[in-house]
Amino acid sequence: MPESFCEISTFFSGGYLGSISNYSFTTVDSSLNIIDETIRLRETVNLPTRFVVLAEPSESLIVMDTKSTPSVIWFDAVEISELEKKSFTSKPDEWDTYADYFKAFLEEEEEERGL
């Protein structure tokens, strides 16, 4: 896993970040988690093995590319077949690292709270 993901996972284990519900990082409880959801999408839509599913906001998908930059990609779920080539019809939101993604949504959350 990318270094920034490993670092952040020491204090964040999934849940709401800004307006996005991120999957849990563990399988300890019954909540949806990145392991089960990644395996499910690998089996159902042939998600390439280098991608890990972080969240599934309405009609979209947020994944982490474990091998290249940009590391985190939020794209329209119907374009899953274009993920490997990253040749999307609609430009996805992208962050170079998991830390950049985390920071962007943390700042959004702070802004919503007026902090």
Outline the structure in words.
By secondary structure, the protein is α+β, with helices and mostly antiparallel strands. 30% of the residues lie in helices and 22% in strands. It has helices at residues 3-8, 34-45, 98-113; strands at 15-17, 20-22, 51-55, 60-65, 72-76, 93-95. Strand 1 and strand 2 (20-22) form a beta hairpin. The longest helix is centred in the last third of the chain and has 16 residues, at 98-113. The chain is globular, with a radius of gyration of 14 Å. The protein starts with a helix and ends with a helix.
SSE order, one letter for each helix or strand: HEEHEEEEH
The percentage of residues in β strands lies in 15-25%
Strand order of the largest sheet: 3-4-5-6
Our measurement of the CA-to-CA distance between the termini, rounded to an integer number of angstroms, reads: 31 Å
Largest sheet properties: 4 strands, antiparallel
Amount of helix: 25-40%
Q: Please provide the count of β strands.
A: 6
The whole-number mean of residue pLDDT values reads: 93
Shape: globular
- Taking pLDDT < 50 over at least 5 consecutive residues as the criterion, the unreliable ranges are none
Rg (C-alpha, Å): 14 Å
The total count of helices amounts to 3
Structural class from helices and strands? alpha+beta
